Amino acid sequence: MSTDMRQHKHANLSIFVPHIGCPHKCTFCNQNTITGQTFIPHAGDVKEICEKAIADGVDMGNTEIAFFGGSFTAIPLNYMIELLEAARRYVSRGFRGIRVSTRPDAINRPVLEILYRHGVTTIELGAQSMFDDVLTLNERGHTAQDVVNASKLIKEYSFDLGLQMMLGLYGSTPEKDYETALRIADLQPKEVRIYPTVVLKDTKLGELYTEGKYETYDLSEAVELSAKLLDLFESRGINVIKLGLHSSTDVENSMLGGIYHPAFRELCEGVRARNTMEKLMGKGTSYTFTVRPDYLSKALGHKKSNIEYFREKGTEVTIKADPAQTENILIKEW
Fold first, then answer.
1. Could you say which DSSP state residue 245 is in?
2. DSSP, res 291
């Protein structure tokens, strides 16, 4: 169980259902490593997790009970209903709702009827790529059109829609990844998650990587691309609720390669701020920027990397917080 805080004070009370129901094992997938868990929860565990969260003072009105880890709507029907009924009792006690994560090809009207009756509020789909060749190479077992169809159906039932995409999958390119993001944005989800590909042991992708048949993006390339994707989604009013795998010793001990950094989002936010400052600069060699206080760490960059970046280019940059400022970044002095 974990509580994953989000923007606008939203949180998830996460319950992992690892790899149950998945009809395929994707090339990149080792769910036990990603979730750090092999335990299979039942109704009593849902009760225990929710009761503990209440005792710990969770803000129920802004928290969804979230079933992550496997393809929730593809697990045996009786088991799915058991978990939903256990969670629904706590929705009636004040939790905001229920969130589930699943596959695009495990969504249909009968399933959505069940989810609706049991108080589900948000459905996340693992789209990963919107190119069929990439999906096939990574043994996803569904098509890009399945993502489109499922997304439309979910929105028809008025669930909040979340879509997940991956960067640097086998057979993909930065251009395909950006196009995937555009196609996902066109589906108008409420939120997205962006997961750069991490190559794990005991996966098909791990074998390809070890054999030299697959190469990942380097970290700087992934950060630059992710910064552009943040701009894209936010310009469309879509909240990026996760960027990069969570920091985990299980992942770090099992990874063979790929795009991983414990502060990946911070790196990306720093590059976004740096790009903005570069656009505001003229031909001078010294600039002072003022920022909102809550934007200061992003403007400075991870470990003040933006200051060093400009210094190496022969430009001295000073960044100050201004409590009266409403814009992210402004030039105050030349």
1. P
2. E
